[in-house]
Amino acid sequence: MIDWLRRENQEPVIAIAGRNVPIELTRHGRAKRLTLRLAPDGSAVRITLPAWCRSADAIAFAHARREWLAKQLAKVPEPRRPASEGKLRYRGDDLLLDWSEDFPRQPFHSGRSLTVGGPHATLDKRLQRWLEAEALRLFKEDAREYCERGKLEHAEVKLTRALRRWGSCSSHGTLRLNWRLVQAPDAVRRSVVAHEVAHLVHFDHSPAFHTLLAGLYEGDLGAANQWLSRHGRELYASFG
To answer: Residue 39: which of 132, 128, 158, 162 has the closest Cα?
Structure first.
């Protein structure tokens, strides 16, 4: 008997490594098969299923892959709380937090330190807002540079707090970029921005897309992708 739990008006749950993890089901009209993944922060098992697939079959699919899910869960970094650790990840490095309740609440960045004040209980929220503002500033600069390099019209840039995608490009030419990338090294962040700018021209991953991307991005795309593959989960651990 499948040992999943389901209560009225609640999502199904699967026991993994001693934890009850919710299973989130998403039906997609164009999906042709089941796809399974663990949320980057380990908070949920996410299954995309075709319209014709039964929910019970999708849940059974997750249980049949419990061992794989347990291995993925073991890779999820422990949550980091910058206010407690006294440091904040920013552009591939750690900034030391110089905090006092009497200091101004608006963070001030100088060298490898960040001076900030206000109540310690709400410090993480202020730090996240500062990171988001920095992310938007940097994304706009990156996108402007790549649009000019590709002789494209400047694109609108917005932040996203998505828990899976690093970026997207809408059919209207709006770039949405994950604010957590501001914690990554500059070369990694910029590779994602260049990728989305290339999608302004090619809405696919065709040879033409990759040729344009290679012409836009100044660094090693393979190295940037490898860094995200190895360390991407860590970016979700802060403020987790």
So the answer is: 162
